[in-house]
């Protein structure tokens, strides 16, 4: 492997980035980050998975409507694999899909088989979770890995989370089992503004990926969108005294803890709270 600079990945290493709509994607922050990269790096789709194998179409229904040629057709919920070459010459594989309903191990096997054929050495899963964080502060993005050598080389944190997991957790685990470099990025989205889009969280994910890849990402209108989003939430909070007070409490807690980039342990705790909000059967 070539020399690393500043805690980023070797410039000649092919990297796979994966994000999935649904349970792993609060505010659509993760998948919109991949869509942004697909657009600005002009990625070409090279493969897709057969949705018949992995999706319950009563859960994720196909969509009917006009296609690019104007003819009506059906779009099926699938996973698309695209390849981009960055301005600095790095090959990046983008995996974007909906979290599958079934056969997760076979699904990961197929994705990683395609990754192997494309020369991937590093797999980065990207997710977003709902957390008790204020919208007025930097969005925390935690970067974790179970590989101690990778943590030391890239300044990542250990993954101490225990509990239910999604397809991003399974894919990361399977990638590591195959001997690939495997890591995960999670953005913490303020739970009181959970509806997508969440451009400030998407922006935070992209900036972390810039650091990891050592590759500047054109941000376009996303910076302005994030500022407009925050201003809109400010306005809504100003109209509700209870929400305003709650946001103030979150700001105080954040500032007192002095954690503009929350620790992996803190994010894990927020993730546990998020899961309990999603599944009352877990308690709490």
Automatic annotation (TrEMBL):
Q: Where is the signal peptide?
A: none
The record's listing under InterPro entries reads: Proteasome_assmbl_chaperone_2 (IPR019151), PSMG2_sf (IPR038389), Rv2714-like (IPR008492)
Protein name per the record: PAC2 family protein
